[in-house]
Amino acid sequence: MAREQGRGQGRGAGGEARITARLVNALYTEAMLLADDARAYFDEHGRAEREALPPMLRVGFSCESLKVTTRLMHVIAWLLTRRAVEAGELSAEQLADPERRLGEAAPSDAIMVDGLPEHARQLIAATSDLHARVRRLDDEIDRIGPPPSPARDLMRMLERAF
């Protein structure tokens, strides 16, 4: 599920990298598929596996399922915010608000995860990877600034022409 870092990024007017709608849509699809897989596993298919675990691992299983859910919720909220900017529902300035940045997610306990069933480990790894990739994109916002606005570019050209 890991994607090549930087894939789907274009170049802005100044040559800087920017996060494109195509990348956001691809990550959104990936996040929604992972969310559906996690819900099906932790709510249904993983119950028998959870019940077969020793008591401490059952608690760990439950904690890790919450971490998976938290990571996915933060990623999906971040991606929906990016979509809102793209659709003109939020301004680029609103995007920079700390409340609209990617939320923190507690790291998984590697020792606990090692004792969990394979499918649980795969979901934990996949959501950790997705959150880390989106974290890198979120960190880029500070470096690249707001996405270019075709309307503002046109207005600047008109102002210079007249």
Explain what this protein looks like in three dimensions.
It is elongated and about 75 Å long. 68% of the residues lie in helices and 4% in strands. The protein has one domain (18-161): Orthogonal Bundle (Helicase, Ruva Protein, domain 3). It contains seven helices and two strands; from the N terminus they run E-E-H-H-H-H-H-H-H. The chain has 162 residues and is mainly alpha-helical. It has helices at residues 21-45, 47-51, 55-86, 92-95, 110-114, 118-144, 150-161; strands at 9-11, 17-19.
Provide keyphrases for this structure.
single chain, 162 residues, Helicase, Ruva Protein, domain 3, 7 helices, 68% helix
Give the integer mean of the pLDDT values: 85
Q: Total helix count?
A: 7
Provide the helix percentage.
Answer: 55-70%
- CA radius of gyration is 20 Å
Question: The CATH topology is what?
Answer: Helicase, Ruva Protein, domain 3
Sheet of most strands: 2 strands, antiparallel
* Number of strand segments: 2
Give the CATH level 1 class: Mainly Alpha
Condensed summary:
The chain has 162 residues and is mostly helical. The protein contains 7 helices and 2 strands, in the order E-E-H-H-H-H-H-H-H. The chain is 68% helix and 4% strand.
SSE blueprint:
Layout: E1 9-11, E2 17-19, H1 21-45, H2 47-51, H3 55-86, H4 92-95, H5 110-114, H6 118-144, H7 150-161
Antiparallel strand pairs: 1-2
Helix pairs in contact: 1-3, 1-6, 3-6
